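User: Sequence recovery, please. Input:
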């Protein structure tokens, strides 16, 4: 009778359980909706701040570039003043003036003075050139490939008196600046307006010792210059004439000459933009040029020659970009800037979303576990009631249920306390950030915000690991594991933390020791022990040593830090227990204990205060390892056999960037090759003269020359193909080379090295 009443009471309690379940689901849904709303709000706030910051940065860069261009073109006024004051008759004197002037105008590559010569005065001008000993061509033009010819008879000319280049060779006097159509158009505009006019951008190596993007600018000079003058008729080079310059009073005559300057856009932009510093993409275009020549400059744009229309379409589609106009003489350039994807604009919203989802998920998981266990207990009690168990069994089950409930209550109480700490800090930080948006610029504040979010996520992950271990969801998958090669990359994961704490990480012991264990679960054990030593022990050195016994393999993780007291050692492996002054969640060693039990690993701890600690892990030895333990030489032979196509080959790598050179060499050496390094063409030639290498990897643009020259000579000597690495568009005479485009991945590098076995002249791949 009593049992029947108790069973009925349990059945009546089912309906409140269902109501609690619906309440949990409603709470979960509300938490997800609030997290999504907070993410959208923070995302809008961050994007607004990102746009404002981008406008500020681009305005500063555009202003700097405009000032540099104005200062460079200002050299033309100095040449005009020089000619007006002293005349341009002495080459050495004009050269000293140009060198002094270029020092105050960044980007200047050459300055020149050209005289306006009507056809009637051509013979007299050419006679003066002969008297100066300047050759017999007279007024000439450069028709390309170094061919110099006399300019056909025209009504007017602008032959240069002197063209002084800062580096390289000067141009002989008599070169008609107006002969090429693209230069003649700019000169006509300058004469017509009386103000400086610029040409379109050109890739040239005439004015410097390397190829650069340059443009030229011209400024007309009149015998009696006055403000407000204009040109009556600016035609001259195509068979017409310059009619003269006039103001309100009448014609003042043709210009006496032109000041010309050659300026490097490559040098000017390198002073303004920096790919390592700027976190946005930049494109610079000249809309007045031909479509294929409009692109002037790109900062981290992926290479190539993007079209103006493509950039405008992307600019309009993104909606976050900034546009600026740059004035260069009479031309107007367009500058477009876009923030790069994956920047800091989404960091704060993602942190808020992660915190909300973590809290919601944690509550849902624990409430679901609590309800599941409650229903299990209810079913168990109903079954026991139906079977009319005796009172003793019922009391025993009741005590077990009470113990389980007490343990769960204690677990949840401790977990909730530890969860509140990072969650409480995270809430305060977000509230502070909402009221003070500029706090996002504070690196220390953002680091603390990230630490709070990382702490919450780590605690949640560790708590779930405890639940999975207790429920038996983790099933070990054992296999033979060579410990030394396996531990090396694992310690590499802690290298950054060890360096920040100034701790030496040491790996030593038997090179062929092989254990029978689950690599994934055993990795969790070792990571926890090494991480605890780095964070909590304050050591100067952490050592991992592998030793082999008869049927076991021992791994000792030792440190020389603060040590652990006897009281702390007795309770250190319990959940949420910490040793000494540690500030962690107290779950790391609890997980170590559970994982070790699942893997059959014996753990022993030896420690003394002030003298460090030693954790000794004893693992079963692999049966294969007992019969034969491979030597380190065998392991090296296996590593080389994975890449037999490079084993024993001599590879020469040429790059003037030390970091790129070192990284490439390490990868190729890892494939079994013998690598020689060179940071310049001169150093590479020394290596080649000592003995031709079997393979050649060379960067296209080097400080002392072009890498394709070395590639061609090596190909001619060996009959094999060289690999040229570049991010530029190569000239037509470089098309027969095997070219690999930057950025370079290991897969692309390996594919290129495998393909160079083809004879020279076959199509390149990659």
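Assistant: Recovered sequence (766 residues):
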């Amino acid at each position: 009778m009593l049992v029947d009443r108790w069973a009925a009471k349990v059945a009546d309690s089912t309906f409140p359980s269902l109501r609690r379940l619906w309440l949990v689901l409603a709470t979960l849904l509300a938490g997800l909706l609030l997290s999504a709303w907070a993410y959208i709000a923070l995302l809008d706030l961050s994007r607004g701040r990102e746009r404002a910051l981008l406008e500020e940065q681009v305005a500063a860069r555009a202003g700097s570039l405009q000032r540099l261009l104005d200062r460079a073109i200002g050299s033309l006024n100095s040449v005009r003043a020089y000619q007006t004051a002293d005349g341009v008759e002495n080459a050495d004197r004009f050269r000293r003036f140009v060198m002094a002037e270029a020092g105050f105008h960044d980007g200047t590559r050459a300055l020149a003075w050209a005289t306006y010569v009507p056809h009637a005065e051509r013979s007299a001008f050419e006679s003066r050139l002969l008297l100066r000993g300047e050759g017999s061509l007279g007024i000439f033009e450069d028709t390309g490939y170094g061919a110099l010819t006399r300019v056909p008879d025209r009504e007017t000319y602008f032959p240069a008196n002197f063209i002084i280049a800062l580096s390289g060779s000067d141009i002989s006097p008599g070169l008609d600046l107006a002969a090429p159509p693209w230069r003649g158009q700019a000169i006509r505009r300058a004469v017509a307006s009386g103000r400086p006019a610029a040409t379109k951008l050109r890739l040239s190596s005439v004015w410097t010792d390397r190829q650069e993007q340059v443009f030229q600018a011209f400024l007309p000079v009149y015998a009696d210059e006055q403000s407000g003058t204009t040109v009556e008729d600016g035609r001259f080079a195509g068979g017409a004439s310059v009619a003269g310059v006039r103001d309100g009073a009448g014609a003042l005559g043709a210009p006496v000459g032109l000041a010309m300057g050659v300026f490097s856009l490559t040098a000017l932009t390198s002073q303004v933009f920096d790919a390592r510093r700027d976190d946005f993409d930049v494109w610079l275009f000249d809309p007045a040029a031909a479509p294929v020549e409009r692109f002037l400059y790109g900062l981290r744009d992926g290479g190539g020659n993007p079209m103006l229309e493509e950039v405008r379409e992307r600019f309009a589609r993104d909606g976050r970009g900034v546009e600026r106009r740059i004035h260069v003489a009479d031309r107007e350039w367009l500058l477009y800037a876009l923030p790069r994807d994956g920047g800091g604009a989404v960091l704060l919203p993602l942190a808020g979303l992660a915190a909300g989802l973590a809290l919601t998920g944690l509550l849902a998981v624990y409430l679901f576990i609590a309800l599941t266990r409650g229903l299990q207990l209810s079913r168990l009690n109903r079954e026991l009631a139906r079977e009319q168990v005796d009172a003793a069994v019922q009391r025993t089950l009741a005590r077990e249920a009470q113990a389980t409930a007490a343990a769960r209550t204690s677990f949840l109480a401790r977990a909730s306390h530890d969860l509140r700490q990072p969650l409480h800090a995270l809430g305060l930080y977000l509230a502070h950030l909402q009221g003070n948006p500029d706090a996002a610029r504070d690196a220390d504040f953002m680091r603390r915000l990230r630490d709070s979010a990382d702490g919450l996520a780590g605690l949640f992950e560790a708590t779930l690991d405890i639940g999975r271990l207790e429920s038996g969801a983790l099933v070990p998958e054992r296999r033979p594991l060579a410990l030394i090669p396996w531990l090396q990359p694992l310690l590499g994961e802690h290298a950054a933390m060890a360096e920040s704490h100034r701790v030496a990480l040491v790996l030593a012991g038997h090179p062929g020791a092989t254990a029978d264990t689950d690599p994934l679960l055993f990795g969790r054990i070792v990571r926890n022990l090494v991480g605890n030593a780095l964070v909590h022990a304050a050591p100067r050195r952490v050592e991992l040593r592998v030793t082999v016994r008869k049927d076991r393999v021992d791994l000792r993780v030792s440190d020389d830090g603060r040590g652990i007291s006897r009281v702390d050692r007795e309770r250190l492996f319990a959940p949420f227990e910490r040793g000494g002054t540690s500030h962690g969640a107290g779950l790391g060693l609890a997980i170590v204990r559970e994982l070790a039990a699942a893997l059959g690993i014996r753990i022993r701890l030896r420690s003394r205060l002030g003298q460090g600690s030693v954790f000794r892990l004893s693992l079963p030895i692999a049966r294969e390892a007992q019969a034969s333990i491979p030597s380190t030489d065998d392991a090296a032979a296996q590593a080389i056999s994975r890449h037999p196509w490079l084993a024993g080959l001599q590879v020469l790598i040429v790059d003037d960037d030390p970091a790129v050179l070192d990284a490439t060499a390490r990868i190729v050496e890892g494939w079994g090759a013998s690598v020689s390094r060179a940071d310049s063409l001169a150093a590479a030639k020394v290596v080649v003269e000592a003995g031709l290498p079997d393979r050649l990897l060379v960067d296209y643009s080097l400080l002392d020359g072009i890498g394709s020259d070395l590639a061609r000579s090596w190909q001619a000597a060996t009959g094999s193909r060289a690999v040229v690495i570049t991010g530029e568009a190569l000239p037509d005479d470089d098309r027969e080379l095997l070219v690999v485009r930057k950025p370079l991945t290991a897969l692309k590098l390996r594919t290129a090295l495998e393909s160079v076995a083809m004879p020279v002249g076959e199509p390149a791949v990659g």
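The CA atoms of residues 178 and 449 lie 64 Å apart.
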